[in-house]
Every structure is written in C-alpha cells, then in structure tokens.
Write a structure and sequence with these properties.
single chain; 116 residues; six-stranded mixed sheet; 10 strands; 0% helix
C-alpha cells in the first residue's frame, strides 16, 4: 500500500534552516509528481511546493527564494530544504502524491516551529 512518511521537523529560530524528508513506498515513485503542503493552527492547508517526476518545480509565492523542493528517485524520497525561516512558516508540513487537490494520499505530517 502507499505510504508517505515525513521527518525532519522541529524547533528552529527565525532565520534558521531545516530540511524535511518524505520517504515514499508502495508505488512507482518516479512516475508521480510530489507536493508539500502545510497547515498552520486555525488555518486551511496550503500548497508549498510541487516537483514533477522529472524535477520541474513550482512554489508558493510565500516561500519562493527561501525553500527548495527536490527528489531522489533512487531513494524514493522527496525533500524540502527550508532556509531563512520565519515565524509564519510555523505549521505541520505534509507530503502528498501527485499535484491535484485534495490528494488521495497524505503523510502523517511533521511539525515545524519557528520561534525565538
């Protein structure tokens, strides 16, 4: 069955960096786009970044220039490198398969907290 397992979240100070990982299994990873979403407390889930199977990327305006999505098809893993983090980046981050919303498959999420 399809499984998506996020890791790498934590507490970081403003201006800091984190790298999230999402390990995928149960499907042909290289054939699917992968998307990171986030959901802050009391807010709707929002798209952060998408990467196609071939590596074409797309970002929300709020993270352009700070976040980088990448993938390693040999390791069935998608990453989200987050730099220059801001308090407003605080959220639970989820990875999903595909680019349509709502996705059929979500991970369990990983908490990112940006605070001094």
């Amino acid at each position: 069955q399809v499984q998506l397992v996020e890791s790498g979240g934590g507490l970081v100070q403003p201006g800091g960096s984190l790298r999230l990982s999402c390990a995928a299994s149960g499907f042909t990873f290289s054939s699917y786009a992968m998307t990171w979403y986030r959901q802050a407390s009391g807010k709707e889930r929002e798209l952060v970044a998408t990467i196609s199977g071939g590596g074409v990327t797309n970002y929300a305006d709020s993270v352009k220039g700070r976040f980088t999505i990448s993938r390693d098809n040999a390791k069935n893993t998608v990453y989200l490198q987050m730099n220059i983090l801001k308090p407003e980046d605080t959220a639970v981050y989820y990875c999903s398969r595909g680019r349509t919303y709502p996705p059929v498959y979500w991970g369990q999420g990983t908490q990112v907290t940006v605070s001094s």
